[in-house]
UniProtKB/TrEMBL annotation:
GO molecular function terms noted in the UniProt entry: DNA-binding transcription factor activity; transcription cis-regulatory region binding
PANTHER family, per database record: HTH-TYPE TRANSCRIPTIONAL REGULATOR RUTR
The entry's keywords: DNA-binding, Transcription, Transcription regulation
Top-level lineage group: Bacteria
Stated name of the protein: TetR/AcrR family transcriptional regulator
PROSITE patterns: HTH_TETR_2
DNA-binding residues: 40-59
InterPro entries xref list: Homeodomain-like_sf, HTH-type_TetR-like_transc_reg, HTH_TetR, Tet_transcr_reg_TetR-rel_C_sf, TetR_C
Length: 221
């Protein structure tokens, strides 16, 4: 084996590369426990085992830490969804179902589920977070889903529905489900169970969206 096979990354470098995630993990725990406003940067630093100055090397403010949490959690989901949706041709129900189940799977991780819950609590006080989420996620994903639905209508898979409003019908139940649990404390007996919610939602959604077989120009697979 060559010399390159024996090269090891120095421990201090591995530690430095891991620090942003350590800061984000510590911040998430504190934000969930105490709320965003009550959590101080020095508390985050202590929880992460770093100095306050070290935290500021990676994140210039507490708001930047929250933005980092959102980007770390949400952008991979948005990017994966776009990977499924863009340039897809065929029955859109297959992609919608896949993406919805992927979202449910990711949100079954408590660390992931904590992000939308945190945003629901804080977004009214920090509207810039809403703008950031719109810019990074909604403005990219929503047009792609609208185009997917429009193509499904044109190809005869879906009824002639309004694509823009249909996007809201697709994502709305998940948002309302989490809102009812977080804001009103109304959690189903079996817990959030997002996988069951998505299965139930897709059954209702597709029964309503699917074009009658006699009207389809192409047979759905």
């Amino acid at each position: 084996m060559g010399r390159s096979a024996n090269i090891r990354i120095p421990k201090f470098r591995r530690r430095a590369e891991a620090r942003p995630d350590e800061v984000l993990d510590a911040a998430l725990a504190l934000f969930v426990e105490k709320g965003f406003a009550a959590s101080r940067v020095e508390d985050i630093a202590t929880r992460a085992g770093l100095s306050k100055g070290a935290v500021y090397l990676y994140f210039p403010s507490k708001e930047a830490i929250l933005e980092g949490l959102v980007r770390r959690a949400v952008l991979p989901i948005a990017n994966n969804a776009l990977g499924f949706i863009e340039n897809y041709s065929g029955d859109p129900r297959l992609v919608i179902g896949t993406v919805m189940k992927m979202i449910a799977g990711r949100l079954s991780d408590p660390k992931m589920a904590a992000i939308p819950r945190l945003l629901m609590r804080e977004i009214i006080h920090f509207p810039e977070f809403a703008q950031m989420y719109r810019r990074e996620v909604l403005d990219r994903v929503v047009p792609a889903v609208q185009a997917l639905i429009a193509n499904g209508i044109a190809e005869g898979y879906l009824r002639p529905v309004d694509p823009e409003l249909t996007v809201r019908s697709i994502v709305g139940p998940i948002m309302l489900h989490m809102l009812m649990a977080e804001i009103f404390g109304m959690t189903p007996a079996g817990g959030l169970s997002l996988d069951r919610l998505v299965d139930n939602h897709l059954t209702i959604l597709f029964d309503g969206l699917s074009a009658p077989a006699s009207d389809r120009r192409f047979m759905a697979t």
